[in-house]
Write a structure and sequence with these properties.
Blueprint (H helix, E strand, L loop, with lengths): L28 H10 L1 E3 L10 H4 L7 H4 L18 E3 L20 E3 L20 E3 L10 H4 L6 E3 L20 E3 L20 E3 L20 E3 L20 E3 L19 E3 L21 E3 L20 E3 L20 E3 L10 H5 L2 H10 L29 H7 L1 E3 L10 H8 L5 E3 L21 E3 L20 E3 L20 E3 L20 E3 L10 H4 L7 E3 L20 E3 L10 H4 L3 H10 L5
Parallel strand pairs: 1-2, 2-3, 3-4, 4-5, 5-6, 6-7, 7-8, 8-9, 9-10, 10-11, 11-12, 12-13, 14-15, 15-16, 16-17, 17-18, 18-19, 19-20, 20-21
Helix pairs in contact: 7-8
Length: about 600
């Protein structure tokens, strides 16, 4: 008779519970058995406080059943087991690792990030085959010599620790390709870092560095250098010797100028926002023929050199919150420039209404002010005939789309986008799409062809009443322009766009700032002028840790909460054209700094 018949009681969650030996600090024999076959053991996120001895002895303690010689047993033969090569201990509560780790000499990957480690066992040096060592998000205060002795190491992650100094013999890791020491307490880097000639990615951001060693110019393979969030006041000219450098991040430092990047011919992006840069060296710009993005937001630039046109491949120029009053007319000739951001500058040379119309209008205005007219670029259709912008048969050159990675089908008065346009987009990894100034009533479905690469989308000056929830699929978006539509709300799915830095919802029908925007952690620029907004949600805006520019002009705001001044990242605040009595127009006319100072003085002190 079954147990049920004898009154036995069934356990409702039987089959869903971990084996008893796996609970706490144990590891299931089934998992160990699988690891002996695959050479990989994943013990992440198991609330382990110690690593069981059975893990270190996994290749020594062979189960008795595996030692039984039988031709019928094809699963548990001891001679089929392999050495452990990959051990993942991430996201536990480990405070130490045993010296017995030396019993795993075949390890090539050790991932122990997100624990409570304060030290690393010296015997780790015996794991000479290690290629990848992940020790980020721990409590390490120094790097032991055993790590420096791992001469075959290619990837070393030490981010989010408490490192105060870096060993001078780091140069021993000659084969290191990726080094991450961000979010520590380092005040300097050793000169020996110049020996890491195979390193292609170096992250030293968010430390206490005041300078970089000249030897950094010897990293001949370096492609990505991240040095944001330090106290850098200057950079060595040797940085200009990095011939393969593609991405340079220098945000939130104290730089007064950029070095001469003389040999950085492959450099594509410079992120130097939130510094104290006062000018650009015009004669140095021609060294950067491949530069696509230049971010100089929140600096002290008073003008741009005319040589900015030497950046022939520049697509995005961010100049928000500087002291620029005019632009060189030559900017109007920069054919590939798709986005130029100017908010927060005391512009006199370009009227505000022109700035509000976007990059194309700014360029057109600047070009018209030159002594000689700039020839209009004519696009050739697939049939070999030229088309004018107002012609409904207008199409794009697939080669141009492919080479510029941008699609411009704006100002066509089109209610739908022709199929051949999407065909050109499908064949290219397009990063920028401009379909503004048309008659579109919804987000084009075929835009999904660029979902993996699209970084900038301009769908302004159309007839959208509702923004499709599909917008949440475009995870690479950094710029979204929705101006001059008929929108009154945004879909909740937009919170998926965690890389979004700029959104423009001006000239719509919003009665309040959409609450979903409060979850956009990367948002720096929020432009919402010319709506029907009545109340400023300060608590919501405080969630935007990087918010630098807030434009609420020409709304229905009757009261400006003083607590706005407590948003420390806010540099540009535009409130003109609202029915509020305070701040007075005379204060608003003095600019953002005066307005924020006024508001700060009205914060209750009780």
């Amino acid at each position: 008779m079954s147990s049920r018949g004898r009154g036995g009681r069934l356990k409702p969650r039987a089959g869903f519970q971990k084996p008893s030996e796996e609970m706490g600090s144990g590891v299931s024999s089934v998992i160990l058995k699988q690891a002996r076959k695959s050479g990989q053991l994943n013990l992440s996120n198991r609330q382990l406080t110690t690593v069981p001895d059975s893990v270190w002895k996994i290749n020594e303690d062979v189960p008795q059943e595996a030692k039984t010689v039988s031709l019928d047993n094809t699963e548990d033969r001891w001679w089929d087991q392999v050495d452990l090569t990959k051990l993942i201990l991430a996201s536990n509560s480990l405070s130490e690792l045993s010296e017995d780790i030396s019993k795993l000499p075949a390890l090539t990957v050790l991932d122990a990030h997100d624990n409570q480690l304060t030290s690393v066992p010296q015997s780790l040096s015996e794991c000479s085959q290690l290629r990848k060592l992940m020790l980020g998000h721990n409590k390490l205060q120094s790097l032991p010599s055993c790590v420096i002795n791992l001469v075959n190491l290619k990837i070393l992650h030490l981010e989010h620790n408490q490192l105060k100094e870096f060993p001078t013999d780091i140069g021993n890791l000659l084969h290191l390709e990726e080094l991450d020491v961000s979010e520590n307490e380092l005040e300097c880097l050793p000169n020996s870092i110049g020996y890491l000639t195979e390193c292609f990615k170096l992250n030293v951001s968010n430390n206490r560095l005041k300078t970089l060693p000249r030897e950094i110019g010897l990293l001949k393979s370096l492609r990505v250098l991240e040095a944001s969030g330090n106290a850098l006041q200057s950079l060595p000219d040797d940085l200009g010797h990095l011939e393969h450098l593609e991405l340079l991040y220098l945000r939130q430092n104290k730089l007064s100028h950029l070095p001469k990047l003389e040999h950085c011919k492959k450099l594509k992006e410079i992120h130097a926002n939130n510094n104290a840069i006062m000018g650009l060296q015009g004669e140095s710009l021609h060294y950067l023929p491949e530069l696509v993005l230049l971010n100089l937001q929140d600096n002290k630039l008073s003008k741009l050199p005319a040589e900015i046109t030497e950046l022939t491949n520049l697509e995005r120029l961010d100049l928000i919150n500087n002291d620029i009053s005019e632009l060189p007319y030559e900017v109007g000739t920069m054919q590939k420039l798709k986005v130029i951001s100017l908010d927060g500058n005391p512009m006199k040379g370009v009227r505000r209404d022109i700035i509000m119309r976007g990059t194309a209008e700014i360029k057109k205005y600047l070009a018209s002010r030159m002594s000689e007219p700039v020839p209009e670029k004519v696009t050739i259709t697939s049939g070999g005939t030229s088309s004018q912008p107002g012609d409904n048969s207008y199409t794009v050159d697939a080669h141009t789309v492919s080479s510029t990675k941008s699609l411009d089908y704006s100002n066509k008065r089109a209610s739908s986008i022709p199929c051949d346009i999407w065909e050109a987009l499908r064949k290219s990894n397009v990063t920028s799409v401009n379909i503004g100034k048309n008659l579109l009533t919804q987000l084009p479905q075929n835009l999904i062809l660029a979902v993996d690469t699209l970084g900038s989308l301009n769908i302004s000056f159309n007839r959208l009443t509702v923004l499709s929830s599909d917008i949440g699929l475009y995870l690479q978006l950094t710029d979204l322009d929705l101006r001059n539509n008929q929108l009154s709300q945004l879909p909740s799915e937009i919170v998926s766009l965690q890389k979004l830095m700029t959104i423009n919802i001006s000239c719509n029908r919003f009665a309040a700032l959409p609450k979903c925007l409060n979850e956009m952690k990367s948002l720096e620029n929020l432009l919402a002028s010319d709506n029907q907004i009545q109340v400023i949600d300060v608590d919501g805006l405080k969630c935007l840790e990087k918010l630098a520019c807030l434009d609420l002009q020409n709304n229905s705001i009757t009261e400006v909460p003083p607590q706005l001044a407590n948003i420390n990242s806010l540099r540009s605040l535009s409130l003109g054209g609202n029915p509020c009595r305070n701040p007075r127009p005379a204060i608003l006319a003095k600019g953002s700094a005066a307005v924020l100072e006024y508001l700060k003085g009205r914060i209750p002190t009780t």
